[in-house]
Write a structure and sequence with these properties.
- Chain B: Belongs to the ribonucleoside diphosphate reductase small chain family.
- The complex is a heterodimer of chains A (97) and B (377).
- With 97 residues, chain A is of the alpha+beta class.
- Chain A has two helices and seven strands, in the order αββαβββββ.
- The longest helix of chain A is centred in the N-terminal third of the chain and has 13 residues.
- Chain A starts with a helix and ends with a strand.
- In chain B, strands 1-2 form a two-stranded antiparallel ribbon.
- Classes of the chains: A alpha+beta (97), B mainly alpha (377).
- The interface between A and B is medium-sized, with 18 and 28 residues.
Chain lengths: 97, 377
Amino acid sequence: MTLTSKQDISQKKEQMHRVLLGKKQILVTEDEPLLVQLERAGIHVEYQCREGYCSSCSIKLLWGNVSYPFEPLAWVQSGYLLACCAIVKSDIEIQFL
Amino acid sequence: MSYSTFNRKKFDSMKEPMFFGENVNVARYDQQKHPIFEKLIEKQLSFFWRPEEVDLSNDRKDFQRLEEHEQHIFLSNLKYQTLLDSVQGRSPNVALLPIVSLPELETWIETWSFSETIHSRSYTHIIRNIVNDPTLIFDDIVTNEEITKRADSVSKYYDNLIEMVNLYNTMGFGTFNVPGKGDVEITMPKLKKALYLTVASVNVLEAVRFYVSFACSFGFAERTLMEGNAKIIKLIARDEALHLTGTQHMMNLMASGKDDPEMAIIAEECKDDVRNIFIEAAEQEKEWATYLFKDGSMIGLNAQILGQYVEYITNVRMQAVGLDTHFETKHNPIPWINAWLVSDNVQVAPQEAEISSYLVGQTDNSLDDSDFDDFDL
């Protein structure tokens, strides 16, 4: 029992990624989209629909990988991500408009 | 060349471009060249709402208590919104349906335009509730100089495309003399250019102009005034977010050349024109802000702040269609607007409180014996 939960923790740790934003660095998991995790870290992000169709939360992705559990309805320009539904998959660097 | 309501040719609609290919014949949605438009239709249908569901009795009292210059701001903004949706409730149908070539896009245009007619109906609902004589308000939309200036700029690209397509459908290619206008040359590149500029100006209408008006509506609600109105505008904003995504997809698909290689060339040639459409609209919106607040501002919103919001939102929308941003303003000067724009707490009926795209009658037919394992009789 103890062994399993330890494994869980170490697996979760592996899923932590660094998000670089200017001089700030935020740690995020793959459990939730980027937007809520940035908000929790006190970073103001623009939003409207929060479900991938309005593109208000579009942020520049300078490097790194994100994935989308569902393909968003909004057009995502190459080099950008939609924070409300993007799951961070590696360390990334982002920049606001 | 001439339009047919049921094209008799047999062709593969999956190989047609979005516009200026074959006229659509069979309305079929089992396959789509661009699945995004089918998804937009489904989303829009799940958003269906009616203005009468929102109670405006407190708004009447609020309106009477507003100061005169605040009533001017509120009514002028409402007139502008009425103008914009009057245009949008008909123009995508009139301008785009005769030239569309994909069934899913044809139906998206109709679904989109229909939702704009709901918006128009809600302005009547609002106006009827706050003033005794709605005619005074409606009449001013066609005579007020500040409003008619905007009418010109939101309708001119549509009108030009409609005129060119009419000529093309009756006369084909060539140069034709239009009384009062002189010679008009109709070629396929010219038609496509008119189309691209129209889609761009519609994107500006929905993604920039509308948002400026939303800011004013929510400015009142921030002070707990005209909250019924804000609730309606919130529903309208949810629809508009979807519509602007539709026009962004059209523009980006055209520019990518994936849909129609010739359209990519046109889009490249039109880049400066499109930039100018955005910038001119932003300047007009700033002028409009000055007109709105000419007799005084309101707490939380004035011509300067609204002007900064115009610049900010224009930058965001330019970036979304692959253009470089134009204005210096990098931050949203009215961050409180997001809490009003957010769609998932729009409440129409109680059962819809938790999810905005509440679907009625969703049943699960994939039952088998194992689903009844927990049942004991």
